[in-house]
Amino acid sequence: MSVLRVCEVGPRDGLQNQTRHFSVDERIELIDRLTGTAPAAVEAVSFVNDRRVPRMAGAEEILDRIARPSGVDIAALVLNGRGVTRALECELDEIRFAVSATDSFNLRNVNAPVSATVDDFRASARAIRDRDIRLTAIIAVAFGCPFSGVVAADAVIELAGELAAAGAEEILLADTIGCGVPSQVSVLLAGVAQVAPGIPLGVHLHNTRNTGYANAVAAVSAGATTLDSSVGGLGGCPFAPNATGNIATEDLCFMLRNMGIETGVRLPALLDVVGWLGKIVPDEITGQLARAGLFPEVAGE
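Structure for Hydroxymethylglutaryl-CoA lyase, as requested:
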């Protein structure tokens, strides 16, 4: 059975656009429940401007208080060097640095062109180099941009090569607005593998247009070793307000399990977390496994 790394992004991407505000205590409880299901990693917080993204305030306190079970990496998202500086003052296993594939999106996100953010990434990689922290580069809007439209595959591949040369230890392609299709996934991952040889690749998928799980299968077939997902399918896209969000961790892991791909995630325990969340935000649970149940059930799972 092959093994794939699942990074649970519910505490960050799942909550940052929620109408309901989750307190620091509630976010800690969610993270602790999720680490108890044994994913490879949990993206617990983001180091962003608290005024711009109030749902993500309190990152340092959260990292100071959460449980840290063996075998589960704790990750944080950053958008610039200021975020890296904050992150390096905390206990982390992974820093995930997002760089947009288009200037238009990057300007909206961090008020800087892509070239400036790549320079920021390069400097951050030097700062992280001697620390026991994995540096992952995430290329946002890799499959399409709400402001610039279609994003050329060559532009994404070229950016991935720059980030690899700058010190990325892993590269993830993000379908930020959920517009990608499997053929794009295959082409992009193949191209990035050429310019970033030996660097692990992955994808961050949204199910906005119901292509997320097909894209996940395409990514695995193309050699991706990390898949991002969110418990219950929590999340959304501020540029498509009526759309659903990330692919659901439980649905993804069920599919992978039945494909013979090991994730390490304890599915019954994860379904318990979905049930707990469903009592808090019942209208936000878009995953299907909690409704339908496991099949077949596996003894001792």
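The chain has one domain: 2-292.
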